[in-house]
Amino acid sequence: MHTVILYFEIFWVMFCVRLKAAGICIFVGLIAEALAKREPRSTSDSRFFNYGCTAIYFAAEITLGLIIAIEAGRIVGLAHSRLHILQSRPGIAFSLLLALLTSILGDLGYYWLHRWEHKSKWLRAIHEIHHSDESVNVTSALRIHWLEVIFTPLLALIPSIFLPNPITVLPASYLISNANAFFNHLNLPIRWGWFDRILISPSSHRLHHSTFPQHIDKNFAGVWMFWDVLFGTYVHPVKGEHPPTGLSYSTEKPTVASGVVKPFRVWRTLLHSDEVG
């Protein structure tokens, strides 16, 4: 129970970090994309849709955050008196090492959650709004259904909250992952060559959004691509490769409203089919 309470405190801190980082990353990313050569088709419609999804996403995070904030005093008291999390004050080098380890462990959790979102019909109904973007760009990082606010951070960060001094380390690690998510979705042909097998790049992540059969269900990691290499889901970006993105199995053009309710419609259909079967 104490671990769950501590997690919610960390979630509140990370939300504040995410809110600031999102604004900075989108602003910088839009400038970078405007200065670089872009795809032939316009991305403006996609961006407006993404902003709508972003607004809903943050509204959900704020709602949860307010609930968490009410308990903030009691949570801090528990952290001090029972968990003793704040008593240790590691040096800068050790904190950076912990942040790196946290990022690696957190990305392992994210990798399996992300892979599950593609394999499960129930979770794919939530996640596909992110993949429906036919013009992936920096704003696509927050083209995410609000339901992912609830379970994505929890499952992705469970492995890392047991590290020493998580209240100090996790926000820094979360900022790294958050900023990297915007960088990965840049509409720019950036790749690392051989080191794409270690660290994700915009080119390697674009393959994850690709509609080409050879790229489907590949490159699941959010930061550390060696998880894909280790588990056999890695595909290497070729120089000059810039495949189309979107849903290969659907031509539906979602709206913000339809995207919000679609998972519930899909789940109702799945439940009905199970009952009939």
How many β-strand stretches? 0
Number of helices: 10
> Distance N terminus to C terminus?
39 Å
- Fraction in helix: 55-70%
Helix/strand/pairing category: mainly alpha
- Main beta sheet: none
Strand content: under 5%
Shape: globular
Quote the average pLDDT.
77
Rg over CA atoms, rounded to whole Å, is: 19 Å
Low-confidence stretches: 71-77, 79-87
Q: What's the helix-strand series?
A: HHHHHHHHHH
Walk me through what this model shows.
By secondary structure, the protein is an all-alpha fold. It is built from ten helices and no strands. The longest helix has 34 residues, at 2-35. Residues 71-77 and 79-87 have low confidence and may be disordered.
SSE blueprint:
Layout: H1 2-35, H2 44-70, H3 72-83, H4 92-119, H5 121-131, H6 148-157, H7 166-184, H8 202-209, H9 226-231, H10 256-276
Structure summary:
The protein is mainly α.
What key phrases describe this protein's structure?
277 residues; mainly alpha
